[in-house]
């Protein structure tokens, strides 16, 4: 069915879905190498999280549930495995006893990924990991556009005196010039904050903040049209998707759930709406398997990662 | 309250809901007999499933949770237990070590049911069971109309070389002339497939395929109006409802969940929208209790089965 | 950040969210005292429930999960802890072996609360507790308006021969003149009943009954405008919120779940829509932790209680 | 295989274990009738419990898991279904809103059972139920011997002012002369009490109290020899088995678990050691399914009930 | 630390335990090849099981939990990874819709394994898989000795008319001459049977059957001395370990649990007692992850598999 | 019942066990003060753990389950609340983003505790916390004796390059002279290690290491006699109890479970055997609530903490 030699997920008619390798989509595993277009990798860090832990098991669990994902999008007709050479390139070897050291290790790991011209698609881990990833990508791409789906703005100046943890990273990313706040869109923020103006710091810098209330009962296709206009088709663009942007009904397995969030159709609309941007990397973070009693949050995450693959420039539609 | 001698569910004021017999709705159990209008029965088969197992416990678990269902629909005013003689007629004795033999057993079991002029309402079990049920019903009713709610089209030609399992049955049903593809409507298909054209085989034969994306954020009442027009009021019509048609937020306990599906209000709209067709049988399949940690998927299934009863021709509205 | 000496929740930067006292929102605990504007208290009763038990653990569990709630509403800009002196005033010491005696104890406990001019915000426990609470509040406020969110009408005349349990309380409240049925609105009723006319007794007395079907796919802001008009801005108004009013997808951990209920955004719209009424008390009932495997139902409940605080007259918006 | 017409459990080769009727051991259900030697019945009461609730689901859950029990004891060679006419005679219709009324209903229900000369084997429900059962049996048998397995002595004078609940029943049974304290043995008591002398009231009346510490690392066969000597072979003897007598490692699903209890082999030794007494009834109480996440506590309970059947006088050994 | 070039498990100081490849013990994965001494592989079959399903996920789950196992036995001082070239050789691609076909596939797969002179250590899957494994090993080794740990004898002639499923395999193995019944020891059988003589068929053929009751409260070291004497040091010996041989307290996650089984220390004694036999292969079957809510059954299984590695002839003790 | 004014746990007849304050044993909470003999406190740290996380919720969960513990030991007759002034003194405010900083905070917090002459009984949190606790206690008591129950020796030199985390602390404690290795006893070590000599470093320094295998099937009372002899009655002695010393059957909810550990009766024998030493503090660590699906590990932990209170010098026996 494929018209090239790209890696294909191991199919359900070759090995039952509950067997086979423990890689994402049962793709081949690979070293970091120039032969790849896209590399899917895990960062099993959870010591940057402020409430429930457990996202350290996110990469393993999302891989486990990804066995159900098949190679073609039935609505978009997207065919990522016919379009790109994709592999599972393993996990970043974080130091689980030391957050600062882990941030350093992650950045170095992604420096290597970038040196091989691989577009990284990452599964976390807590949201802290996006900061060192953005730092590494910035070295190659310069200032990036950012689409940030999340229940929280993650723009605290510090938490418990620490400057780098899962609630501060996008203030750091803006301060360091990694992302362009005028090409940054935050979607799904809601619930309660330390002050009534918690989101203002970003707004003041030009970020488009789309609170969850603005999304209720609406298709987000028009919003994504606006997003693509804000960003433009050439700007290197990163997508960071915190699973807690989605309502806990759809994604119960996460560490800081907030009520009344996005629906899973809206999540698909957002990711599918990235098609047309110059997507150069993406992550899916904050899946916490101990709180995901059915496995369905990990399964949703695996599907979102598939949809991310479909939104990279050059993905064929059949 | 009833104006006849029909079986009534054991009421919550006679026996607390957590006690009493383990039958559906705490109805009397009955042999297969001509005295019944509708028979509710279980088919505890799960060896036709390709990913997670566990639907073998579906009939027991749906019966357990059905204790909360009361005899009148509060919105539709439907009164099925005032309208029909209904009983729990037990389970089909499948051979759990042999799928082909189980398919044979199920067909024979439903031959007996049909010989007694009972309209069967079945709780599965994986979706494989609908094929032998349709075969048995076809002997009486001829080619039927089919409303099929599901995340998947179930029209693969074969899986792992097998022609009859939970992913191939509706290709078989069309090939064998059991159902009329021009009077067949599939609702809720989505996510990923083995090829971008997985749904085309059915479309090519005249099936109306309503992907989940077409349903997002909409009432399905207009769709059901269209469905009733397609089918016509006289055609013997079967309803097969795979619980995975519904989004895993609402129905987490199933074996092959797919994100961004129907909502439970939409599920009710579909089943209520069958009122006006010549419904001659229905099934509710793919509830997998080991993945239903709260029991609420089974509870939803029990309510859907109640709504099915309300949509049979002749059901009184009060 | 606060401009007064009101109690503040222990912040996440002083003590990690998983530590600190086991009080609601990690507020100080307090005796019942005239110094408080609002008292949050628990009533750990579940022997008035007819199906699944477990709500006895509701107060503890909702307090446990409330640690994630921060002091400001990010959409409403409401600042309840800058507006009122609020404390956790502990639990009512119910007699778990005797429902009638518990009803008596609860009423006496709330007599004491009312004697201190505390506006009570209660976390249950099963819905039976609202009856003695209303009795105590009636002594101070006279006949009250009532907004009642619930999957059920709770207006049975008796259950298993008992006049006072979780399914009969609002018939009692109307009969006793505690609430004015013409200023009573029920929202979210649905599914099945003992008779097709189960809701009629209330309708006949002037209650506005908004079945769940009327709410599907709609913003409830217009409904709440109607509610405020029905009630008027001066009438002492009580809000009683049964978590099962919300769909089990969003609130799985409850004892008598019914499919196709309200969404959590709609729940927020209802409580936020109480702003503008003369709210004098509120309760959140029927959270059953043993069926809440992720803890997210308790977390939702904690957020709803926060939103209740924001809707009391005088709550500052920043 | 059987040499009579006694009811037989539905076999695993006739219907797979996950199908078939929801009765204990998949036996036929029966009305209370003189045709039975032994009746197995449920009492789904849990409002007499002081800590976790949920035992109301004990009868249903133990029946569900009992499907795995086969008709012959592989070590004892006991053949109860070749020895007695046994059926599942359903549940006692307790009033879940009123403990005192439930106690009355249970006694009346067992009066009926005794009137039919059925030996009752009961699955609870919380331990309160043993008191009305003993009252009914006392009318026929007079003062009985009692073997009582439990983590607790259940001899409080009152709890929260109530004289009859799950922690007071054996004080009542002794005071009322239902059981002979000199022929009463309590096994498995442990952990903590309201006073250091909590067990003394029973000891003072002649009860043999075997604390769990005396059982650690020992076969209980010698103890049971002593028990049989104390009781004598003719005295009508009742066995009441609280599942919390067993360590929570083996029986996690219960409401007031205490560490360092009996092992499941010791539980079997106790029940098998009843062989040789004049056993006239037995109960198994305090299984709380919401805390039994694997179902294995209910499965253990079902096996213990099977072993009880094997210890009735006249049970054939093959 | 190792004195050769054998594969080593990825260490916890190189990659945190929750990261890294999804292989057993985080060993390298390998094709079936002559370079290996021992190959660990999975057979994800569960359609041969008669009660609860779910063992299809056994291989994946045991691998997941195996990350905690380190390379040296602290009591035995055994060092398997210093002694043998060991790799994870993946899963046998069973046909989940057809038991007979799966049995054929498994045998062929093990024919290939044997052709490469790999000693197989298998993780199941239900117990059916041991039959085709033994068939393949028999071609190389001839009639083997067998140590069989299990709650059940698995010597039914047929189940539901089928000759080959998880309850019949050892009757087949004896009938076909795969194992020598005089060098076959069954340990841990218990609970209930279809007839009181269920174990007799094996005893009659010379099998040493050690019921669980004989093991209670005893070290099994003397038994294993007897086992080694029965077998002799040269006879090719296979160890098949059904996790349900162990008590459900220690191993809750299994499909047909029976009370009062072996303890986990006894399980270690058995496997360690295999040291001194000519062990040529082993399997660990019947772990059912959906019923293993803490993951600890899989973790125990992973440790048992480690201990199996330590008992192969030639394993160095340090 | 008490003969003094010491704090008493809130009794089950004053407030049902599922209500009341969220403190340990429902004792009063207190500031750190000279009025106390013993202070129970939590350290909700889990970022020092190498495998599963979640022990951050240990203090909250153990307090929740402690409601079932009553004030008197039924076997020992110990009466700690008649003997000492005991209170819940809250949690140490660790920095969850920084392990080194947390270790510093904990030490300072315990410096304050020691300044008030409070004997600390701590509930963790991961085992890292024992190191700063010992450092603080050492300032007052000098070199201490140590009884250390654990599946692991926790004497690695470093892990992932870090010198202070949950696997290295007792090497640090010996190196720093906090504990006297000749008066140090480790009990329960087992399973697998990084080298066959992992335990030797401690043995070489005089530590008495009692591997789990030495404990199987034995009363540990004789061992504890030996322990008391080794330590002597005057030496200030600390007890550190890692819940994973106990077998996962009894204590499933922990982060690095190892099979074939101590039983809960043995755990009681160890703690009760501390009676007679000069116990000056104790901790109970590594309870991980997300893996404790029944809550029973936390309940066991609460009982062990009660038993610790009973073993402090001066505890009255009644």
How would you describe this structure to a colleague?
Chain A is of the alpha/beta class and 318 residues long. Chain A has one domain: 3-Layer(aba) Sandwich (Arginase, Chain A), CATH 3.40.800.10. Chain A has helices at residues 58-65, 80-83, 99-115, 130-141, 169-175, 200-204, 212-215, 221-231, 264-272, 296-310; strands spanning 38-43, 72-73, 86-91, 119-124, 144-149, 179-187, 192-193, 208-210, 236-242, 278-285. In chain A, strands 3-1-4-10-9-5-6-8 form an eight-stranded parallel β-sheet, sandwiched between helices. Chain A is globular and about 55 Å long. The mean pLDDT of chain A is 97. Chain A binds chain E through residues 14-16, 18-23, 29, 42, 44, 56-57, 59-60, 63-64, 90-96, and chain E through 14-16, 18-23, 29, 42, 44, 56-57, 59-60, 63-64, 90-96.
Number of helices of chain A: 10
Judging by the overall fold, what is the CATH architecture of chain A? 3-Layer(aba) Sandwich
Low-confidence stretches of chain A: none
What's the main sheet of chain A like? 8 strands, parallel
Q: What is the total domain count of chain A?
A: 1
């Amino acid at each position: 069915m494929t018209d090239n030699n790209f890696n294909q997920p191991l199919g359900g008619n070759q090995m039952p879905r509950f067997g086979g390798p423990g890689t994402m989509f049962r793709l081949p595993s690979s070293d970091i190498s120039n032969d790849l277009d896209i590399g899917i990798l895990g960062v099993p860090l959870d010591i940057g999280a402020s409430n429930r832990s457990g996202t350290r098991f996110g990469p393993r669990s999302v891989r486990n549930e990804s066995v159900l994902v098949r190679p073609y999008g039935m609505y978009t007709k997207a065919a990522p495995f016919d379009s790109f050479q994709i592999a599972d390139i393993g996990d970043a070897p974080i130091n689980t006893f030391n957050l600062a050291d882990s941030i350093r290790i992650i950045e170095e790991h992604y420096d290597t990924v970038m040196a091989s011209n691989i577009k990284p698609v990452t599964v976390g881990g807590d949201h802290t990991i996006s900061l060192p990833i953005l730092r590494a990508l910035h070295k190659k791409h310069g200032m990036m556009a950012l689409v940030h789906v999340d229940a929280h703005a993650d723009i605290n100046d510090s938490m418990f005196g620490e400057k780098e943890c899962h609630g501060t990273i996008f203030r750091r990313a803006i301060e360091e010039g990694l992302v362009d706040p005028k090409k940054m869109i935050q979607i799904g923020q809601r619930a309660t904050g330390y002050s009534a103006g918690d989101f203002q710091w970003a707004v003041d810098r030009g970020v488009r903040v789309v609170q969850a209330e603005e999304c209720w009962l609406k298709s987000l296709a028009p919003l994504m049209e606006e997003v693509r206009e804000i960003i433009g088709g050439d700007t290197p663009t990163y997508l960071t998707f915190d699973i807690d942007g989605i309502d806990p009904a759809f994604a119960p397995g996460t560490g800081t759930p907030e009520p009344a969030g996005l629906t899973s159709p809206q999540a698909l609309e957002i990711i599918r709406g990235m098609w047309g941007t110059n997507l150069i990397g993406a992550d899916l973070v904050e899946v916490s398997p101990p709180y995901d009693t059915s496995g369905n949050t990990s399964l949703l995450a695996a599907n979102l990662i598939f949809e991310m693959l479909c939104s990279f420039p050059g993905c064929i539609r059949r």
